[in-house]
Amino acid sequence: MSDAGTGYAQPSRPDMAISLVIPAWNEEAFLPKLLDTVEIAREKYRGGRESVEVIVADNASTDATAEIAQDRGCRVVHVAKRCIAAARNGGAAAARGGLLAFADADFEIHPETFNYIALVMATPGHVGGATGLLPARWSAGIAVTWCLVLPPLWLAGFDGGVWFCRRADFEAVGGFDERVFAGEDVRFLTALRRLGRKRRPRERLVTRFTARKLGLAPPLVINSCRKFDQRGDWHLLTHSLKGLFYLAFARRKADDLIRQYWYEDRNRP
Question: For 114, which of 53, 121, 131, 149 is 20 to 30 Å away at the CA?
């Protein structure tokens, strides 16, 4: 993506310190690639490289995740409760920046990510937002899944990728809901949007689409396709149908399915 005409040349405010929180459980295979891209984005940040701190919330990993993060100069926060919402909250609690950003460990972020976040949050009328994302590869199954999952999210005014907001607003909405094991992102963004709507003038969430109205090209994240690599490119469609059936008729099985899918098969061959 070219930076020409995107608005990235605007000066960023020097006090826009950003804390990037990365929840991680057994991420030794993916974390180094993410951190490589984070370092590039830190170097390009007009607020200064040292104005971006990187926090890895180690969620009881049994591999070298914490060691890799420490060797790369990240702050490591150990979170014992095996729940991604708890990991996000644990990292945020240790953050020093006035702005919080959240990236999954299997992302590759855009070089202009931090400049984008600072510019959006320095522009009046925004309570937070997301950068948007793309899959690391395409196939028929991934494309169909993408078309079924992302458009409803966009229609609701949300987006994926790196989420960001002010730390004060994160605290005002209570962070991520640790009662759920998946979908904590949508709940958080819903609460953040509700907070913005209560303000006068109202503040909104920024997505890849509304960013263009600001003259900015969204710095889209590249999201790994590891679930598709592990389970097949069409698996999420059948998995989702099974989940919906369980939600309607066997809630305990639905909870078990969520835990197994998101928390127990990281090392699945």
Answer: 149
CA pair distance 178, 150, nearest whole angstrom: 24
First vs last Cα of the chain: how many Å apart?
A: 34
The residues, ordered by sequence, that sit 6+ positions from 157 with a Cβ below 8 Å of its Cβ are: 193, 204, 205, 207
Residue with tokens 């945020």: 92
pTM attached to this predicted model: 0.90
Domain spans of the chain? 18-230
Instruction: Find the length of the chain.
Output: 269
Local confidence pLDDT in tens for the 269 residues of the chain: 334 345 554 444 555 699 999 999 999 999 999 999 999 999 999 999 999 999 999 999 999 999 999 999 999 999 999 999 999 999 999 999 999 999 999 999 999 999 999 999 999 999 999 999 999 999 999 999 999 889 999 999 999 999 999 999 999 999 999 998 888 999 999 999 999 999 999 999 999 999 988 889 999 999 999 999 999 999 988 877 766 655 566 667 767 767 777 787 554 43
Q: 89: closest CA among 179, 214, 175?
A: 175
Exposed, middle or buried, 31 (CB in 10 Å: 0-12/13-18/19+)?
A: buried
Give exposure, 135-150, as e/b (b: 16+ Cβ within 10 Å): ebeeeeebeebeeeee
**Per-residue tokens: 100:** 């919080």
Asked if the bond preceding 11 is cis, omega within 30° of 0, the reply is no
